[in-house]
Design brief:
Elements lengths: L4 H11 L6 E2 L14 E7 L12 E6 L1 H12 L3 E10 L2 E4 L7
Parallel strand pairs: 1-3
Antiparallel strand pairs: 2-3, 2-4, 4-5
Length: 101
């Protein structure tokens, strides 16, 4: 019997090296929102971070405004962005091949 679409997608996710982090799941609906332009994976460094708790590793799918806020929080030292991908219609285009996934 054939595999379901969900099973095939999970296999592709694992082959792509995706991990489960706090925040958005790899196939979260936010990934497919028409305003989503960025996916970031980051470590929360301080208790002052507006998202997550110190020590968390998180994944978020963001619109441009949310990504700008993430960059500002990185400048303040609240988070460290480990990975960034452009999101186009749900497809991820990583900045570099060697990034955390």
């Amino acid at each position: 019997m054939g595999k379901t679409i969900g099973e095939l997608m999970e296999e592709m996710r694992i082959k792509a090296g995706a991990q489960n982090y706090k925040g958005h799941d790899y196939l979260d609906l936010a990934r497919f929102d028409e305003n989503t332009r960025h996916m970031i994976i980051f470590d929360v460094l301080t208790h002052d971070s507006p998202v997550g708790f110190k020590g968390d590793r998180m994944r978020l799918f963001l619109a441009d405004a949310g990504y700008q806020k993430a960059l500002e929080n990185q400048e303040r030292g609240n988070i460290k962005i480990l990975s960034h991908a452009r999101v186009i219609r749900g497809d991820l285009f990583y900045d570099r091949k060697d990034q955390v996934r």
